Amino acid sequence: MYFIRGGIVALCVFCLVYVALSLLVGAAWRALRRDQRPLSSDAAYGFRILPVVAALVAVTVFTVPSFLRFEPHWDDEPVGTAALALATAGAAILVFGTVSALRAWMRTSRWVSFWIADSQALKLGDTVPLFQTSETAPLLAVAGLCRPKLLVSGDAGRLLDPGELAVAIRHELAHVRRRDNLKKLVLRACQFPFLRALERAWLEAAEMNADDEAVKDERSALDLAAALIKVSRLAPRVPSPELAMDLVSTPSGAVAARVQRLLAWKPRVRPNPRSLRIGMPAAFVAAVFTGFAYMWVLARVHEFTELLVR
Q1: Domain chopping of the chain, boundaries
Q2: What pLDDT does residue 129 have?
């Protein structure tokens, strides 16, 4: 009964933190969108996964240790109906997210296996395997998690000039370096109804980041813009699976915005490292303060969970 009670407490806290922060993030995102404030892909993604990360931290760093430290083993106090309902909802969130992520991974693996079954492996000189696929595959995409594969249709080679194809491939390899397919898997595991717009904003920003990493000069910017225009006229020929990044996986309006950015391309300014120099000492001070106050925080968390399960 002791460990069952602890599991119920952990699920209750997870559900409360996850749902409350998801609603707050959704409201904050709507406010940012009204103000038309752009977010980088890292900021948008961090903002999106904040609820699930905070919920897991609240459970593993505070709730479970406080329960083990302060909850007596002989206490057989019954658990209230509200706590059981919250725990059931928390378990449902975890199970639904896990099943959703597994289904996306299995569907992607099945499609990629089908596409490369009759493909031709090519030498790219990179760690990512390149396959020239048939017409049943997307024109140009990178798919997979642990061992991502670059899929280039034979039609892409005929449609794009050598310079356009080269910069398009660099764009897809940028997705591999940034592990965008893995980020998609995490999003599948923590879906929430009011955060779809934030996920679309992250995807659009991720495509622009990959554009920036692929482009080296004005010529390659024009080549990538031309590739986007050509590919967007044919897409969607074949829908990409969930855990894949297509060259034009975003809506037509977002593709047009990417083309406009590329046509107005300028050399990027390197970020100022001052924020890192300031952030590291601040994080150290916060960690030290948290360490000194940790037992006090655990006691307060236990008092809260005692009220929660009654």
Answers
A1: 2-263
A2: 84
The residues near 241 (Cβ < 8 Å, ≥ 6 apart) are 104, 107, 108, 111, 112, 143
* Total residue count of the chain as it appears in this document: 310
Residue 150's DSSP bridge partners are 130, 142
Enter the tokens of residue 11: 């699920």
Q: What is the pLDDT of residue 155?
A: 81
**Strand 244-246, strand 149-153: pairing:** unpaired
Residue 139 has pLDDT above 90, yes or no: no
Helix (H) or strand (E) holding 151: strand 149-153
Q: What's the Cα-to-Cα distance from 283 to each of 26, 56, 80, 170, 278, rounded to whole Å?
A: 26, 20, 39, 35, 9
Q: How far is CA 1 from CA 8, 78, 138, in A?
A: 10, 10, 53
CB 226 within 8 A of CB 168: no
pLDDT tens digit sequence for 284-299: 776 776 677 888 888 8
- The token pair that represents 84 in the structure block: 């059981």
DSSP state of 97: H
The SS3 call for residue 150 is strand
pLDDT of residue 276: 46
